[in-house]
Amino acid sequence: MAKLIYSMITSLDGYAEAAEGNLGAGAEVEEVHAFIGDVFRPVRTFLYGRRMYETMVFWETAHTLPDVPPHILQYARDWQAAEKIVYSTTLESVSSAKTRIERTFNPDAVRRLKAESDSDLSIDGPNLAGQAISAGLVDEYHLFITTSVVGGGKRFFPDGVRLDLELVEERSFDSGLIYARYRTR
């Protein structure tokens, strides 16, 4: 059975999306980006909300940019090879290969997808992930914690959910970013 992984960059105070501005520096450093690529290379299916998909679709054409560094090229190729499911009631079409739209998030369909998949799945975006967390579907949480406190926005974890997690891996980077991987107990 495949794992469902929720991962995002998050501020030190727990926000995956800042109310104003960005979450701070650290993730754009080559060392961090290459690490993220290595961690998610085995993932063969990405589950996105519309806004996260619109951010990530950049990787469909990233390989065509001039002077693309090898770690960016590798990430683009890995992303292009994966299946993508976009959950949206408003998106009319997709602009990437291996991508389909689902109008509603169906926890039973995601359970079946996990059961039938040979490779892990990733869910991205705090709103969509919140639905999966509430349904008990998320097996691992990968947090990339910046050094910034942003004071508000969309939280990484949804309100009203209690989880008992086990820390299974951690790493700090010279940029100050901290990676923490937790498993659901």
TrEMBL record:
GO molecular function: 5-amino-6-(5-phosphoribosylamino)uracil reductase activity
Family matches, as Gene3D superfamilies: Dihydrofolate Reductase, subunit A
Record-annotated Bacterial bifunctional deaminase-reductase C-terminal domain positions: 3-178
GO-annotated biological processes: riboflavin biosynthetic process
Residue stretches spanning the membrane: none
Domain of life: Bacteria
Protein name: Deaminase
